[in-house]
Amino acid sequence: MTSIEIEYCVPCWLLEPAVETQTRLLNEFGQALDGVTLTPGHGGVFIVRANGETV
After folding, report:
1. Closest by CA position to 18, among listed 44, 47, 43
2. For 15-24, b where at least 16 C-beta lie within 10 A, e where not — what string?
3. How high is the pLDDT of residue 10?
4. What's residue 12's pLDDT?
5. For 6-46, what is each residue's pLDDT tens digit?
6. How many domains does the chain have?
7. Residue 35 sits in which domain range?
8. What is the dihedral of CA 38, 19, 6, 15, to 10 degrees?
9. pTM exceeding the 0.90 threshold for the entire prediction
10. Per-position DSSP letters for 1-55, written without gaps between them
């Protein structure tokens, strides 16, 4: 199984795109995933990791 983490910049207002990405991943791969977590960050970051590896 695959675990996904989406790290997004809070001050840059990237929560909405992070939630949209999370929703799309769950809709597409739902049962094949262990989970999709959102992690607040800063500095313009928007990173998607699968099992700890940046994709």
Report:
1. 47
2. eeebeebbee
3. 97
4. 97
5. 999 999 999 999 999 999 999 999 999 999 999 999 999 99
6. 1
7. 2-54
8. -80
9. yes
10. -EEEEEEEETTTT-HHHHHHHHHHHHHHHGGGEEEEEEEEE-TT-EEEEETTEE-
Are 47 and 7 contacting, i.e. CB atoms less than 8 angstroms apart? yes
pLDDT of the residue at 20:
98
Cα–Cα distance for residue pair 1/3, rounded to 1 Å: 7
Q: Which amino acid is at 45?
A: V
State the pLDDT at residue 45: 98
Residues with Cβ within 8 Å of 11's Cβ and at least 6 positions away in sequence, in order, are 42
The amino acid occupying position 26 is L
**Domain CATH for 28:** 3.40.30.10
